[in-house]
Specification:
Low-confidence stretches: 380-386
InterPro entries: Aldolase_TIM, OxRdtase_FMN_N, YqjM-like
Number of helices: 12
Mean pLDDT: 95
Protein name: NADH:flavin oxidoreductase/NADH oxidase
Number of strands: 13
Pfam families: Oxidored_FMN
Largest sheet: 8 strands, parallel, barrel
Cofactor: FMN
Distance between the termini: 21 Å
Keywords: Flavoprotein, FMN, NADP, Oxidoreductase
Bound molecules: flavin mononucleotide
Strand order of the largest sheet: 3-4-6-9-10-11-12-13
Structural class: alpha/beta
Length: about 375
Amino acid sequence: MPDLFSPYALKGVTLRNRIAMSPMTMYHSVDGKMNDFHTMYLGARAAGGFGLIFPEQIAITPDGRTSVHCAGIYNDDQIEGHRKVTSMIKDMGGVPAIQLGHTGRKGSEVPPFEGGYQLAPDHPDGWQCVGPSPIPYGGDHPYPVHELTRDEIRGLHRSYAAAARRALEAGYEWLEMHYAHGYLGASFFSPLANRRTDDYGGSLQNRARFHLEALDAVREVWPERFPLTMRLGSDDLHPDGVQFDDAVQAIGWMREHGLDLADLSLGFNTDAMVDPPMGNAGFMVDRAARVKKEVGIPVAASWNLGIPENADAVIRQEKIDLVLLGRPALANPHWPVWAARELGVEDAFSLVPRDWGWWLANFRGHDASIGLPPAKVFEEDPREIA
Ligand SMILES: Cc1cc2nc3c(=O)[nH]c(=O)nc-3n(C[C@H](O)[C@H](O)[C@H](O)COP(=O)(O)O)c2cc1C
């Protein structure tokens, strides 16, 4: 039976444990480049023991960014900054992963901490957003959306492939497509955003065509030895939107097109979500477990899994293969080390670089000298997550 600290092998890649840092947009880029901030922030999490480390949604085109402060990999000048990040992550024992995305009708924003609203296309920091149909997201994202032509869709698939080629050159070893949270892929999948009458709209098969073609385009340049995964918006939480059953069926098709693991998420494709579960512990886990069982594909999930016993339990119960942590990774770069001590893992400090691990394990007069609560031994049965 695996636990949170069992290595995880997928294709030719082996992670040192089942803990991944979930992608989080940081608004720290200039000209779409990764810089010292990213090397520091991501290197610290790798040094803290995360097995797989995602920076953030990385845009495949300039208008695929969330804001002008967001990172991309749409030109060769951007490769160098990514390379520094991947080499730091590898030096610290982690595996670097990239999440490629396009924000579609939710782009052209100001950062959340400045209001998160959309800027008009003629604003110096804004642009014309695109989508499958000319339907604005609404609310504080009110501006007209350009309906992508078939040629433009083909161009986007070429951009995905070009971005994947650069990602490989930059040293990433795991590639995820971001098709959740109301961004472009999620818009194609959802009847709320996609009203097309050609073969990219209407039936479920047509609404998944954008995904399958993108997977095909990326797989041509992304080697078989490295995992290709997708974060899928599996439920719009709206009666007229994507239903979870749709996602289960479409992931089956995606598997046939080279998908190695499904990273399940939901919501944020409309402000009118019905009963959003975002306050519930581990609410994605049972949904992901259903995909694992019915589609027979490895799965990952995030959302409220920051309590070590819970994260360990869902791996031990073999409901999911990887735990993704977002906010816990922001709050505590050493979450894996802390969790290892909480769960009674022997030699928790072997997760940090060898020299300072030695000091923490050996140079101690009192537990308080290392600034962590005394490790408690994991005796009880893992908690079931409701
Ligand atoms: C600051 C911040 C930025 C995020 N940016 C992204 C992103 O770029 N791509 C993505 O797929 N999810 C993004 N998310 C969602 C997280 O990856 C994660 O799925 C979510 O926070 C739930 O996990 P948690 O409960 O461990 O935080 C973001 C979340 C936060 C808090």
